Amino acid sequence: LFMARVIDYISAHLPNGDLGINEMSQSLCMSSSTFRRRMYAITKGSPKMFVRVVQINKAKELLSSTTLTIKEISAQCGYKEVNSFIRAFQSDTGVTPAKWRDQCKTE
Q: How far apart are CA 63 and CA 77, in angstroms?
């Protein structure tokens, strides 16, 4: 239930990038330190790392199922700068978003 609520919050707030620890913890009616501890206990990582996982997974979904531009996808995933999105995506997947999309088309 806790993680479902976290994912719902992240998904709802991805496009506007409103994903600070304080905002997330307040939406779950807990202190930021308790929120961090629970997230780490479940994910073995920080809340920020988990947000990035959700962002990259959303980007993969949009890249494989839409014709949105990379810039539009980066904005929908909460990135203010497309270059930051491309770097994060490539760091996590090993390929650029454009290459990911091309690979999805050939599969």
A: 11
CA-to-CA dists, residue 11 to 65, 86, 107, angstroms: 17, 20, 27
From first to last of the 107 residues of the chain, give the pLDDT tens digit.
Answer: 899 999 999 999 998 877 889 999 999 999 999 999 999 999 999 999 999 999 999 999 999 999 999 999 999 999 999 999 999 999 999 999 999 999 988 77
Predicted TM-score (pTM) of the model is: 0.88
Contact 79, 87 (CB under 8 A): no
Tell me how far CA of residue 13 lies from CA of 6, 10, 20, 91, 98, in angstroms.
11, 5, 10, 23, 24
* Rounded Cα distance, 54 and 73, in Å: 13
